[in-house]
Write a sequence for this structure.
């Protein structure tokens, strides 16, 4: 086991090599188009966040002008805002590597650069889903849903409560869910539960005639995957900007 850990560490060090300033700037230029994934709110310590729930626990608890329920809500909103902010920071950093290795592979046709690109492609799909789920936690607290979510996100229950309250958040949520369905249900789930979407598989099956038939899996090219990621940046950014307005 120690040898395996050393080998894994060396592999990661070789992969996460230093990027050039231009490579970083190329990725940042793409992300700058999407204000929703920028950290526009600051707290008293000048730390930056995605949403305007920036007070820390001490500030909330010792604010005698607010009751216990309000304090509890504000503190939970602040916690989920911090978690969203961290995850979006990870998303942005992962995209810098993904975009850089994508461009490197275009120039070099080096299989290692493609391997690194596809490694970060898988990671970025997980961050997208994590952000989606944490946003649901934030919404759940904001709308005062009596169903408390501690661990698992229950999308159907949250949506049902939004329908019952005739909340304007519902439209923003449905729009985001519909637009990101391919990324969530096809690509990310393929990484997690099925065959790798980058690889063209020949899948065998014994048919009703008791012979072996071959079916072919769908696969996605590097260029198409990068395009889908950038499209989902746009959808996520729009979703966050709508929520920023609705959370006021």
């Amino acid at each position: 086991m120690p040898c395996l850990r050393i080998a894994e560490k060396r592999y990661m060090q070789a992969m996460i090599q230093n990027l050039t300033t231009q490579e970083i700037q190329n990725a940042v230029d793409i992300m700058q188009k999407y204000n929703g994934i920028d950290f526009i709110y600051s707290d008293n310590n000048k730390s930056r966040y995605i949403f305007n729930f920036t007070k820390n626990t001490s500030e909330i608890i010792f604010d005698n002008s607010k009751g216990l329920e309000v304090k509890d809500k504000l503190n939970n909103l602040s916690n989920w805002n911090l978690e969203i902010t961290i995850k979006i920071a990870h998303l942005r950093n992962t995209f810098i590597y993904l975009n850089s290795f994508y461009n490197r592979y275009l120039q070099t046709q080096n299989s290692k650069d493609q391997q690194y690109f596809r490694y970060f492609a898988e990671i970025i799909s997980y961050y997208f889903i994590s952000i989606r789920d944490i946003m649901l936690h934030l919404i759940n607290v904001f709308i005062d849903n009596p169903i408390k979510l501690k661990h698992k996100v229950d999308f159907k229950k949250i949506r049902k409560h939004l329908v019952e309250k005739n909340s304007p958040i519902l439209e923003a949520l449905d729009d985001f869910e519909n637009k990101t369905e391919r990324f969530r249900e096809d690509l990310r789930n393929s990484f997690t539960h099925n065959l790798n979407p980058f690889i063209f598989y020949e899948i065998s099956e014994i048919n009703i005639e008791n012979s072996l038939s071959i079916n072919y899996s769908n696969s996605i090219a590097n260029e198409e995957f990068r395009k889908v990621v950038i499209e989902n940046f746009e959808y996520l950014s729009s979703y966050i900007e709508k929520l920023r307005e609705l959370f006021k």
The chain has a mean pLDDT of 86.
